[in-house]
Specification:
binds adenosine monophosphate, 15 helices, alpha+beta, 27 strands, 6-stranded mixed sheet, globular
Length: about 575
């Protein structure tokens, strides 16, 4: 591979798992983390020594130390919601930045040089605020975002590269942990064009897990929201494992340890399909909208690609097969495909010679517009109308201009509220923020302003204003975005975050094994629990002797024993 001193990395920053990849002479390649795994769970938590653990160790500690651990924070990107780790509250951008820091360190260890630029994938349906929050997360991790790439576009790039001289129309169904995206792409002699995107930013595999956790709780006679945080986390963890089992088997059975007693739970695929049917139904609308926006019929689609771990669910595969009367493709692992595509985009950005003949265009998934008022009588206005400016599924980058004038001649400012969405009323769309447009001059002067909106290739919005009287252009800052951090606050937090130490990579394997053993101890009862307890004591004894060879050998042995336990049955 080419080890140039400047390498862009491709990152899939997922709700449940994240991955990093690079583009090499042999094509896109995934990079393993310090545990030798490609999937780094998007989980973060404080370890016993006060250093921050990222990935598998943190995920396992969700069970044993829920108050010190956080996961699934991608759902809160672009909101003011904070999650508490120990005594400190963090925003989603900050928690995500720890995952990005860890992936960056893995890439640097693999490449042998530092990395400061990345292509990061986001759900196509992420709005402007969520996209800007992702860029802030990268900045917190010391990474410049070369481009945000929509997840289904990345997936199609990875697939398209396999058949770059072909000609086909793809539909990509991407059901991740927390988001659902559908995209339609056309590929023709290396030129790949996104025709339409649709989705739901609040629908994912985790909703299926929540529904199953409720059902398991019902079987045991508890409500997940009424149990302790620890028991709730265990019940959810169990529901997640049983859900995954149902992708392979018609039934899953397990025992849940509650108040020292093993309580049996079970679920058949039929019952699971019944309780998750309302969630499954929500998948249909974005699929139909993407097809109609692309002015196609289901028969026009040559390839149906499924992406995201949750498309492994039987009912999801069945739905897609039924809708398109053919089986979806998943020749590339659905967990890997987005990161591989992000690496292809990184290769394109770096003008890698192996990608000379590949061109990629994408679209904006939302309509962008602003609030207008209609005059309904003398001095009377009807507010709250949505005036579209850039229609959804316009190819990006795109720039549109419009001239606006104040309602009253002695106004000094226009406060223009910008929205994303498809409803004719702004109240039903998402407020991106407000533009404060200063109006200079007296009541007799022309106060009209030309506004130019640009969606860049990352789907991020910029607005420029040019007063017609002066023709002096200014770039306007969109203010008051609910859910985004002001610049000064970003600088403050950047300082505080850089002081937080992440657990050293070379000790990660030990921390991960301890976390896994403790989770197993918590989850089990009786003899099994005693055996796990002995393994913990044994490994801690070995660690205290600080002999690297002995530690490595013990870790391998214990890893095998605990692996057998976990395979035996669900805890
Ligand atoms: P992603 O964000 O693409 O990593 O998707 C993660 C989601 O996929 C989570 O909700 C997982 O529980 C779910 N998932 C992963 N593997 C499977 C599987 N084999 N069967 C069902 N769901 C799965």
């Amino acid at each position: 591979m080419t080890a140039s001193s400047k390498t862009l990395i491709g990152i899939d920053l997922g709700t449940t798992n994240s991955l990093v990849a690079v583009f090499t002479d042999e094509g896109p390649r995934l990079i393993a983390n310090s545990l030798g795994e490609f999937l780094t769970p998007s989980a973060v938590g404080y370890g016993d020594d006060g250093a921050l653990l990222v990935g598998r160790a943190a995920k396992d500690r969700l069970l044993t130390h829920p108050a010190q651990t956080a996961a699934r924070f991608k759902r809160y990107m672009g909101t003011n919601h904070e999650m508490t780790l120990g005594k400190k509250a963090f925003r989603a951008e900050e928690l995500s930045s720890f995952v990005l820091r860890s992936l960056r360190a893995d890439a640097e260890a693999f490449l042998g040089h530092s990395v400061d630029e990345a292509v990061i994938s986001v759900p196509a349906y992420f709005n402007d605020i969520q996209r800007k929050a992702t860029i802030t997360a990268a900045e917190f991790a010391g990474l410049k975002v070369n481009r945000l790439i929509n997840e289904p576009t990345a997936a199609a790039l990875a697939y398209g590269l396999q058949d770059r001289q072909g000609e086909s129309t793809f539909l990509v169904v991407d059901l991740g942990g927390g988001t659902f995206d559908v995209s339609i792409l056309e590929m023709f002699s290396g030129v790949m064009e996104v025709r339409a995107s649709a989705g739901d930013a609040f629908l994912g595999g985790e909703d299926f897990t929540d529904a199953l956790a409720m059902e398991l709780g019902r079987q045991i006679g508890i409500k997940p929201e009424d149990v302790s945080r620890e028991d709730g986390a265990r019940l959810r963890g169990l529901a997640d494992r049983m859900k995954v089992q149902l992708s392979e088997a018609p039934e899953a059975r397990a025992e849940f340890a509650l108040k020292g007693e093993a309580r049996p739970v079970s679920i058949t695929r039929e019952k699971f399909d019944e309780i998750t049917d309302p969630i499954l139904k929500r998948l249909r609308l974005p699929i139909q909208r993407a097809i109609s926006d692309a002015s196609l019929r289901a028969d026009d689609l040559h390839r149906i690609i499924t992406v995201g771990g949750a498309t492994r669910m039987h009912a999801v595969r069945q739905l897609v097969t039924r809708l398109f009367k053919r089986f979806p493709e998943y020749s590339i692992d659905p967990d890997h495909v987005v990161a591989l595509g992000a690496a292809v985009q990184a290769g394109l950005a770096a003008r890698h010679k192996a990608l000379d003949d590949v061109v990629m265009t994408d679209v904006c998934p939302f309509t962008l517009g602003f609030e207008t008022s209609i005059q309904v009588g003398e001095g009377k206005y009807e507010h709250g109308q949505f005036s579209p400016m850039i229609e959804r599924n316009t190819v990006v980058p795109v720039s549109k201009a419009d001239i606006i004038s104040p309602l009253h001649p002695n106004q000094h400012e226009i406060a223009l509220r910008i929205f994303q969405g498809e409803s004719p009323f702004v109240k039903d769309n998402i407020l991106i923020g407000t533009l404060h447009i200063p109006l200079r001059g007296g009541p007799k002067e022309d106060k009209s302003v030309e506004l130019r909106y640009t969606y860049d290739t990352s789907g991020v919005l910029e607005v420029e204003a040019t007063p017609l009287a002066t023709k002096k252009m200014e770039r306007l800052v969109i203010e008051g975005n609910p859910g985004s951090l002001p610049r000064a606050e970003i600088e403050n937090r950047l300082k505080a975050l850089s002081a937080i130490k992440i657990h050293p990579r070379d000790q990660h394997e030990n921390a991960a094994l301890i976390a896994r053993l403790r989770a197993a101890f918590e989850n089990s009862l009786g003899d099994k629990r005693q055996s796990v307890g002995r393994l913990i004591a044994e490994f801690e004894g070995v660690l205290s002797r600080q002999d690297v060879r002995e530690i490595n050998e013990a870790r391998r042995n214990i890893d095998q024993i605990i692996g057998n336990f976990e395979r035996d049955d669900v805890f």
